[in-house]
Design brief:
Length: 355
């Protein structure tokens, strides 16, 4: 397959997936619908049986984000950075060990492997083992030659030549021990933060609510900590996000929230704030538990920028509407990464084409 074949396939995949996003509608004449539409619609509605975190809304949000990136314009702009290196003479078999924290979180890695002309050997998380295999069926339905380039396995990975692995800090040590002899990208825990100035509008804080609550806060791009100016009025945060209170209808989320509230109340934590579905707690850490958002006060923007730079290995994404905050994306866009927003800041495509 030429790079043009591969790009065309992904554009067609994006058009198919767009029908299943929150705003999507079924296209009566879409060429792939007769083969795949009904089965995929049923999977989206029932996958929560296997993983209660994967609600229909969250799955459709993830599908919409993928579909929006798979347009010809987006793909060509992205691949123009590498276009002279994408027609490989011999594909490399790349093992991709995936996380399962949010739906299809490993899709970008699979996309990079396939568009770089390499072979994808996917090791799925038990928490997310249904959606990507179905999407791979659609890819092969569009371009049958991809059948020789896509494989999912639950067995031990064999005959691999490179590895991309995503997991916790503990699993990263395991990955490094077993796969260190191969060219590799090994990712660890990261979290995202928001920097507020106290001048945000109600609509801006509502947008921040998406960064906090989408996917129940389980993604590395979900905001798990707020940096706020000293003296910040937390009513300015709590009041606009009241519309997210339905999150407490999810049993797994509310069980975590109530457990953490009990623990903090027993310790008489004086920094604890509560609105009955989200706890705020002052803490210098970045990785807050489910149902909890850490916060920390700052006095000087320059000192804060330096702090964030020093801790960049722990931070996936910074969101802020302040132009004074370096490398920040706007509030509400944390879960809308561009194709060039590589996990942990490591250029996956450059890694793959230079193996």
């Amino acid at each position: 397959m030429t790079i043009d074949n591969r790009i065309k396939t992904m554009v067609l995949l994006g058009g198919f997936l767009k029908q299943f996003s929150q705003e999507g509608r079924k296209e009566a004449d879409h060429a792939l619908n007769e083969l795949f539409y009904n089965d995929f619609e049923e999977l989206i509605k029932t996958v929560h049986i296997y993983n209660p975190w994967f609600t229909e809304n969250n799955v459709r949000n993830a599908i919409g984000a993928i579909a929006n990136s798979l347009t010809q314009e987006e793909l060509l702009n992205w691949l123009s950075l590498y276009i002279t290196q994408l027609d490989r003479k011999k594909p490399v078999r790349v093992a991709v060990i995936m996380a399962g924290n949010i739906p299809m979180v490993g899709f970008h890695d699979m996309l990079c492997v396939l568009l770089s002309g390499n072979k994808f050997a996917g090791k799925l998380s038990s928490d997310d083992k249904l959606l990507l295999p179905f999407i791979s069926k659609v890819i092969i339905g569009i371009e049958p030659d991809f059948a020789d380039y896509i494989e999912f396995t639950e067995e031990r990975l064999k005959n691999i030549e490179a590895v991309i692995a995503t997991g916790s800090n503990n699993s990263a040590r395991y990955f490094d021990y077993y796969f260190g002899k191969y060219p590799n990208i090994i990712r660890k825990n990261r979290n995202s933060v928001a920097v507020l100035t106290g001048k945000e509008s109600v609509s801006e804080i509502r947008s921040l609510g998406d960064d906090v609550f989408q996917y129940f806060g389980l993604g590395c791009r979900n905001v798990s900590k707020l940096f706020v100016p000293r003296g910040y009025d937390f009513d300015a945060f709590y009041s606009p996000i009241i519309g997210f209170q339905e999150i407490a209808n999810n049993n797994k989320y509310v069980n975590n929230y109530e457990y953490n509230r009990t623990v903090y109340l027993m310790s008489s934590d004086p920094t604890l704030l509560d609105n009955n579905f989200l706890l705020l707690r002052e803490d210098e850490g970045y990785s807050s538990p489910i149902g909890v958002l850490y916060y920390e006060f700052y006095d000087d923007v320059n000192a804060l920028n330096q702090r964030l730079e020093n801790d960049k290995e722990l931070i996936q994404c910074i969101v802020s509407n302040s132009k004074e905050i370096k490398n920040a994306v706007p509030l509400g866009t944390a879960q809308c990464p561009a194709l060039t927003d590589y996990a942990d800041g490591v250029d996956t495509m450059a890694f793959l084409i230079n193996i």
